[in-house]
Amino acid sequence: MELAAIIAVLLITVGGLVVLAGIGLHAWVTGHENRLKVAARRAGTWAGRLRLRRQARRAGSADTPPASALTAGSALALTLVLGLAAIALAAVGLGTLVDNVTDGDGIAVLDHPVARFVTAHRAPALTSAMTAVSAAASPAAMTVCALILGVLLSVAWRSWTPVVALAATAAGAIGFTIVFKAALGRPRPPLIHAVAAADGYGFPSAHAAAAAAVCGAAAWLCSIRMRSWRARVAIWAVASMLAALVGISRVYLGVHWATDVIGGWIFGILWLAVVVSAWAGTARFGRPQQ
Q: Mean pLDDT over all residues of the chain?
């Protein structure tokens, strides 16, 4: 359990530092708001000064915060608490899974039985479908999809927030997965189980990690401004099913053990929680664009 504890502590520390960096940036800007306004008035153009006056007139009295500000603060606090809790739980879960994989016990004992079952129950039509799913959801393809969706949402929001958030989600999930693979060096299943080509190490699955992180980020961004709870539930359900299908395809094709995919899902959720919490700390999301 020492390895699991070390990994969990490292992941929680990294995730916490990223979140605290976002919160610290927001706190610094808030604490120096008056100074920043003075600097803007001195260095800004006439248009900048006019914009500040308009904002001051809209804000009204600074002594009594509006009810909407209090509501936004409560939502921000809830988001941060849930995000940090998700980071901690995912880090502990991933650390425990790594410990099982390296020792060959726990849930890792299911890897060989699952691989044998899948090998014995493949069908040509299903193999073709799973091959298409795996190819369409490669880490490179998920990155392209994330950037395209980010650009579309940025145009709709009139803000760079969506494209930056999705780019950070895809890059972090894929980049850290590559580092994790090299650090653990877990071999993939034997070729006798595979019906597709794959190289490199197996744990965690980059396909599963990218799918969980990008699909989750896409659902989160799309649901932010939805007023209907049914629509929000629907989009999260679709995102979850897509991420699950991508991971299942990798096990079906025999290029990953089941625990490789589970590790990828957990890692993707962990990184998604880091991104969401860090951005929530800047109090930027959920605000209508002026």
A: 77
